[in-house]
Amino acid sequence: MNRRERTAVLAGARTEEVKDAAKEIRESCEIQILKQPQKTLVMVKVRESVKKSLFYLGEVLATECMVTVNGIKGASVMAGDDFEKCISAAIIDGYLNDASNDHRAVLEKIEKLKEKQEKAREKLNRQLRKSKVNFNVMGEQ
């Protein structure tokens, strides 16, 4: 799982789930907060579907944070204003940036979160498909 996928999973998880994934790291590593969590605005860039050109949709409220885990930097930027979730995600990032650590336990937790999110998404999609209307069929007699 690459960094982009991990970040997407952590962003989609609840605060308690991210804190749980970072719990062992907090207990076993030396953590320093370099940049306290703070609110910021981030421009959202979107690709237009017809001409495939980029444009800025607008701004979104986000929280950013930077930490060190055993001297290795970790950072997080999360949509919303959840400081605890942002700190925990930055701690996980710093831990995973250190090549000397055994990442299996943390990556397994993130993988379980990913599977849980995929199941929830599949369930929602099944519910939405029940109400899908096929307009091509409606016009036929």
Shape: globular
**Structural class by secondary-structure content:** alpha+beta
Give the beta-strand count: 3
Kindly report how far apart the N and C termini lie. Answer: 50 Å
What's the structural domain tally? 1
- Low-pLDDT sequence parts: none
Mean pLDDT: 92
Q: Tell me the radius of gyration.
A: 19 Å
Could you please describe the fold and organization of this structure?
This protein is of the alpha+beta class and 141 residues long. The chain has one domain (3-119). 50% of the residues lie in helices and 29% in strands. A 3-stranded antiparallel beta sheet has the order 1-2-3. A hairpin with a 6-residue loop joins strand 1 (31-47) and strand 2. Helix 1 (3-12) packs across helix 4 (104-130) and helix 2 crosses helix 3 (83-97). The longest helix is centred in the last third of the chain and has 27 residues, at 104-130. The termini are far apart.
Summarize this structure briefly.
The chain has about 140 residues and is α+β, with helices and mostly antiparallel strands. It is about 50% helix and about 30% strand.
What labels would you give this structure?
single chain; 141 residues; alpha+beta; 3-stranded antiparallel beta sheet; 5 helices; 3 strands; 29% strand
